[in-house]
Design brief:
single chain, alpha+beta, two-stranded antiparallel ribbon, 9 strands, about 30% helix, extended
Length: about 300
Amino acid sequence: MRSIWKGSIAFGLVNVPVKVYTATEDHDIKFHQVHAVDGGRIRYERVCTVDGQPVQYSDIDKAYESPDGDRVILTDEDFSKLPAAEKHEIPVLQFVPSEQIDPILFDKSYYLEPDSTTPKAYVLLAKTLERVDRVALVHFTLRQKTRLGALRVRDGVLVLQTLLWPDEVRAVAFDKLQDVSEPKKQELQMAETLVDTLSDDFDPGLYVDEYQIELKKLLDEAIASGSGKVTRAPEAAAPEMDAEVVDLVAALQRSLEASGRKTGAAPAAPAKVAAKTPAKKEPAKKAAKKAPAKQAAAKQARKGA
């Protein structure tokens, strides 16, 4: 995991440095849009409605339009001047019973890791929350947005759950529920009996996302079968040799050729040695030729006598 934010929890006069990590992740299989005719990827561009030209993200500012139609354009420099953008503290406002927080207010969850060499203050806060069985209501700034949060403990680790502001929860009133008669006593008893038969402790490991499992199975089978719906990924090209390596190989080859040896050929050294051996015995051969000449001269001398 990668930390997305750093700050510190202000617990009275105790300061608890922490790193913030996203606690959940989405395992849904991702798709992208393609042209049904040829399978071409559909891409979207940021196009200016005035000149019709694509706009780079670095050239985009943010605009606000009031209910009366007035528009205000703010730049990154304007946002950097807001005090919320510089706040890296999570002050504890109060400790409240967890059952008093309506679950509809819970938004996203984050793990908090101690960001100090001695996490004693972190452990102290976690143990205190476990003992008092309460949730710490905190106030902090994350990604340039001021938020409320509920700080609790999960398996010895501090968990920060962002809360929606009260005005972010819609008020609801359905007309069809206005004049409905109360359930009869017998109906309530039967409903309660049904609840009892289905009652058990909550074990999240018992439940799986069957849709994602079947979707993954469908995709794997399509890839394995090589049906017409599958476009095979192009084979990776063989890595090209670096120019410096090529030059080095060529230089080595030329060196071998200059020395009279070729790559893959049998060694030529023994042949050279064999050629030199007769040359060393040449004086012996000359001596052998001279011996018969002397014998012939001596024989001729005896005949003359």
